[in-house]
Write a structure and sequence with these properties.
alpha+beta, Jelly Rolls, Arc Repressor Mutant, subunit A, four-stranded antiparallel sheet, elongated
């Protein structure tokens, strides 16, 4: 379902940073709000980029599929993040990864022609897009360095702490994170077996509790010294 975004609530996003109220209203008025249910495709790797999506509510993921058919999660997408950044270009290359919702999501959507028109009217959009691209590159560089220089235990602990800060929900019992073992293993660059083994050990030690699709950090500070 697609509806007008003119009444959408203001959203904090690096993609829209620095724009004045008039520019922001014009850009948002040119978008539509699309609601997607859980596990719905947003983009497919290899296809021509024809839309840019800004996540307003919910969670999504960037992923790729290996030759053996295994899904590898590259990045979790939270409100304010952008999908399809390459569509800012006049003649964009294909999407390099696929994107899919993890939960129910609301997205602001601009088609390619509209986005190009807005980028010409507001060059700051393109500058913000480049800053975001460099940010994502930095994230992947940090992960690559971590694979070479840190233990699997440290990488998994850091991934959990990052997720707790990024999208965790604070409750009296601890910080709850909606994440599967498979997603967590991809994000920390360890095998699913290793992720499961470490999570079970930390559960026995009282650092966290886990159930299907959710991890609760009972003592987040204890993971900082792993």
């Amino acid at each position: 379902m697609t509806v007008s975004a003119s009444s959408a609530a203001p959203l904090k996003s690096k993609f829209l940073a620095g724009l004045d109220a008039t520019a922001l209203r014009h850009i948002l008025d040119a978008a539509h709000v699309r609601h997607l249910g859980r596990e719905k495709n947003i983009t497919f790797g290899g296809e021509r980029p024809d839309h840019l999506f800004l996540l307003r509510a919910g969670r999504a993921k960037f992923y790729t599929v290996t030759e053996s058919g295994a899904e590898v999660v590259l990045l979790l997408v939270v409100p304010g993040d952008v999908i399809g950044l390459v569509s800012l270009l006049s003649n964009p290359p294909p999407y390099i990864a696929s994107a899919k919702t993890v939960s129910e999501c609301d997205l602001l959507v601009w088609d390619h022609a509209t986005l190009r028109r807005l980028a010409k009217a507001y060059p700051l959009l393109t500058e913000n897009g480049l800053r975001l691209a460099l940010h994502y590159l930095g994230v992947y560089m940090k992960r690559h360095i971590g694979v070479l220089s840190k233990s699997a235990e440290s990488r998994l602990a850091e991934a959990l702490l990052h997720l707790a800060t990024q999208s965790g929900e604070v409750h009296s019992s601890g910080v709850e994170i909606d994440i599967t073992n498979e997603q967590l293993s991809s994000l920390s660059d360890v095998s699913p077996f290793t992720a499961s083994r470490l999570l079970s050990r930390w559960e026995r030690d009282g650092k966290l509790s886990k159930r299907r699709g959710r991890v609760t950090l009972l003592a987040p500070e204890s993971l900082m010294i792993v």
